[in-house]
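Good morning,

Attaching, inline, the backbone tokens for the sequence recovery test we're adding to the shared suite. The designed sequence is right after.
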């Protein structure tokens, strides 16, 4: 009796395929929305990083000028000329075609004062700049005047806004654009 039932079971077992276990998930699979969100976050981070680098690169000449200004020995007779040269080099790096690069004396002095922001004007407390021509060409300049000019240069480098000079820069020498 057992032999008749064993025959069909063996035939049925022979037809069965081996059971295969499913592959194990090696990675943590995310839904497509999460992948899109991750790509979006990476792109935003990259854009912010580029903007920050651009900002740092734009501010590099100002940082260099401030660092150089702090190294100028104010007791040397050519300190006022070094300060003026530094301010003009910074202006050259910011606006290579600016007409104030050719200014000297009163025109340069007027340009410096006119390009200070309102907060910069408050920091100098309305104190007038020393006569720059006298500072540059005296054999021994007054140390207090040189110190005042260096302090003004520091504030100017921190607070200057060259957009303020657009109307004043060309009219200072009588040049008017039509």
């Amino acid at each position: 009796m057992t032999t008749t039932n064993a025959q069909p079971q063996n035939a049925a077992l022979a037809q069965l395929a081996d059971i295969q276990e499913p592959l194990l998930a090696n990675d943590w699979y995310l839904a497509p929305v999460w992948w899109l969100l991750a790509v979006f976050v990476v792109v935003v981070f990259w854009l912010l990083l580029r903007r920050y680098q651009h900002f740092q690169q734009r501010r590099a000449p100002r940082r260099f000028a401030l660092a150089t200004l702090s190294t100028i020995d104010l007791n040397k007779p050519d300190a006022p000329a070094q300060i003026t040269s530094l301010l003009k080099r910074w202006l050259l790096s910011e606006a290579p075609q600016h007409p104030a690069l050719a200014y000297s004396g009163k025109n340069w002095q007027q340009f410096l004062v006119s390009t200070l922001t309102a907060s910069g004007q408050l920091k100098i407390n309305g104190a007038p700049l020393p006569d720059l021509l006298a500072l540059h060409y005296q054999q021994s300049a007054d140390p207090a005047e040189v110190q005042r000019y260096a302090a003004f240069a520091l504030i100017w480098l921190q607070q200057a806004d060259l957009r303020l000079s657009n109307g004043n820069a060309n009219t200072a020498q009588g040049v008017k654009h039509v």
